[in-house]
Amino acid sequence: MALAQEDIEQIQALITKSIQVTPEVGNANVRYELELRERTTRVEEELKHQRELMLAGFAQMDKRFEQVEKRFEQVDKQLEQVDKQLEQMRNESDRRFEQVDKQLEQMRNESDRRFEQVDKQLEQMRNESDRRFEQVEKHFEKIDKQFELQSKSIMDIHQEIKLQMRWSFGVLIAVGGLVVGVLRMSS
After folding, report:
1. How confident is the model at residue 22 (pLDDT cuts 50, 70, 90)?
2. Domain containing 28: what range?
3. Counted domains in the chain
4. What whole-number distance in Å separates Cα of residue 5 and Cα of residue 86?
5. Residue 117 pLDDT > 90, yes or no?
6. Helix or strand or coil: residue 135?
7. CB–CB of 2/48 below 8 Å?
8. What count of other Cβ atoms lies within 10 Å of the Cβ of residue 123?
9. CA torsion angle for 107, 113, 116, 121 (degrees, to 10)?
10. In a domain, 120, yes or no
11. What is the pLDDT of residues 118-133, one digit of tens each?
């Protein structure tokens, strides 16, 4: 049974009064013992109070742990639901990826078929281009021959013009010499 604060104060007052009445010299040990008992009583009361507080704290902690356990159970249930949803989403994603894979395979096959067609068309165009280039080369060879003939004709004309210029120059010198000779003779 715990003592009330009034009882403790009354006991302290009685002890203090008793110590004051007793002579100090003879009762020094008794006084010391009484102080020790009084202190011990206070410490015991405080320890008892601390134990009560600790028990109350432990009870509150137990309640809190129960609440935390309930919360963990709720979180576990929510996590299970999330796991189920994630599994469903994964299955749906797998199904969609399979569809996309099929579509990509179809597109690849279609692209391969089209590329083969384009390759055939390119081959035909290359053959046609080769044929046309051969025709153009033949045409250029004809033109080259015509240029060679024209070049030779121009060179012949050029040679003829040179020859005529030499003759004209020779005739001009001869006429000039005759004119100078006639002028010298007439003077």
Report:
1. low
2. 5-125
3. 1
4. 64
5. yes
6. helix
7. yes
8. 10
9. -100
10. yes
11. 999 999 999 999 999 9
3-state secondary structure 64-127: HHHHHHHHHHHHHHHHHHHHHHHHHHHHHHHHHHHHHHHHHHHHHHHHHHHHHHHHHHHHHHHH
What distance in Å separates the CA atoms of residue 6 and residue 167, rounded to the nearest whole number? 164
Two tokens, residue 149? 């003939």
Distance between CA 63 and CA 179 in Å, rounded? 151
In a domain, 15, yes or no: yes
- Is the residue at 102 inside a domain? yes
- CA dist., res. 139 & res. 133, Å (int): 9
pLDDT band at 24 (very low <50, low <70, confident <90, very high): low
pLDDT tens readout for residues 36-60: 888 888 888 888 898 888 989 899 9
Q: 62 to each of 27, 55, 117, how far by Cα in Å?
A: 51, 10, 80
CA neighbor of 39 nearest in space, from 17, 11, 6, 18: 11
> Is the residue at 153 inside a domain?
no
Q: Side chain identity at 162, as an amino acid letter?
A: K
Residue 179 has what DSSP assignment? H
